Amino acid sequence: MPRHEFRPGRAVAGLVMLTLAGGYAADAAGAWNAPWAFFAPVFLGGLWLAATATWVSYRARRRQARRASAENSSAPGSTRVH
Fold this sequence. Notes:
Elements: H1 8-29, H2 36-71
Helix pairs in contact: 1-2
């Protein structure tokens, strides 16, 4: 049983940052000669991808909550007066 809910946006952001750190380390060690302009688009693209993953998971959770609420008509406060 997980102790907390999975947050895909944070996972994506973490993986992108680890990739960037590896790229910087390889560049500093001389194993890879990357131009500095390579890292900015990777960073911004990773942030965009993380934001998109967060938005998609948020929408899925909200959709699931609405569906569960609509199916549970015996919930307190759900009496409908016509």
